[in-house]
Amino acid sequence: SSVQQDGRFIFSRLAYDINRAQDSAGIIQPASLGATSTALQLNIDGVSYTYSLNGGNLELAEGAVTNALNSSETTVSNLSFTRLGNSGGKNTVQIEYTVTSKIIQPKGLETKDFQTTIGIR
């Protein structure tokens, strides 16, 4: 389904970028351990990468270019990023989001919650 496909794609893209952040200093937002934010901002090789919601779309702003990561068949909601870890150690980011189909099925709208934790390598 488009809900599963979009959910997996979003996870894969987040994991790819968080792993490229190289160290805890690469996580700009959430700014401190234990902090939760509705946006994730990373600094990767001097370029800002910001994940945030805009009108039901999860958008990635990469430098001056912004693209939606979900398809036109779904919406994303309940997005949150929580920074976890030990001071001086490599941090992880706990990610939560919900993907909902725009196409009404006989059982109603398909919706799925996603939660994962991704660490910096």
Q: Can you walk me through this structure?
A:
There is one protein chain. The chain is α+β, with helices and mostly antiparallel strands. It has one domain. It contains one helix and nine strands. The strands form two sheets. It has a five-stranded antiparallel β-sheet, with helices on one face. A four-stranded antiparallel β-sheet has the order 2-7-8-9, covered by helices on one side. The longest helix has 19 residues, at 2-20. The chain is globular, with a radius of gyration of 15 Å.
Which sequence of SSEs, written as H and E, runs from N to C? HEEEEEEEEE
Coarse shape: globular
Give the N-terminus to C-terminus distance in angstroms.
31 Å
Note the main sheet.
5 strands, antiparallel
Per DSSP E runs of 2 or more residues, the count of β-strands stands at: 9
Q: Roughly what fraction of the amino acids lie in strands? A: over 45%
Please report the number of helical segments. 1
- CA radius of gyration is 15 Å
User: Helix coverage percent of residues?
Assistant: 10-25%
Q: What order do the strands of the largest sheet run in, or round the barrel if closed?
A: 1-3-4-5-6
List the uncertain runs: none
Mean pLDDT: 93
Give the total of domains. 1
Q: Structural class of the helices, strands and pairings?
A: alpha+beta
